[in-house]
Amino acid sequence: MKTDLEIAKPPATHDLDRLQAAAKKCRACPLWKTGTQTVFGEGPKKARILFVGEQPGDREDLEGKPFIGPAGRMLDKALAEAGIDRAETYVTNAVKHFKWEPAGKRRLHKKPNSREIAACRPWLLAEVESLQPELIVCLGATAAQSVLGRVVKIGEERGRLQPSAFGRTKVLVTVHPSSLLRIPDAASKGAAWKSFVADLGKLKR
Question: What domains lie within the chain, and their CATH numbers?
Answer without folding.
Answer: 22-201 (3.40.470.10)
